[in-house]
Design goal:
It is built from 5 helices and 6 strands; from the N terminus they run βαββαααβαββ. The protein is of the alpha+beta class and 167 residues long. A hairpin with an 8-residue loop joins β5 and β6.
Length: 167
Amino acid sequence: MTDAAFELAQVNIARLKAPLDSPQLKDFVDGLDPVNADADAAPGFVWRLQSESGDATDVPVFDDEWLIINMSVWRDTDALTAFMYQGRHRELLARRREFFERMQEAVTALWWVPAGHRPTVAEAESRLLHLRAHGPTPHAFTLRTSFPPGTSVPVTGELPEGLGCSV
């Protein structure tokens, strides 16, 4: 449990292997609405980035048309982790190599925001760049090395085998 004055923001980006309307990405695209509905109903879910389409696949990130973004806010790391590693999300996560290029730099960042704050894409890009440059810090961290709100002492966590956060 965390301080109710803070919520956990997360961003992850992925570089598509093919256009979203291609047969190669059909299972991914078909899974978006059900996975987003699962997230919306998950305990501890607060908010997610979406455009008029209902998802964020058409929201530009890093001026790269092959990158897609997922950004959301959760009550805490426990709520986010519980959602990530169960059900349809876990199934799509396990198949990520079919849909997305492997990227060498960090593609997922977490940070604490004041309750009620909704992060922008520019904020998310800044947090990812900070994580890439400095590693996990209270400004931008990972599930493996997280920081409680208002502290600088990392909390190291274990992730289920084979399901690291990188895309």
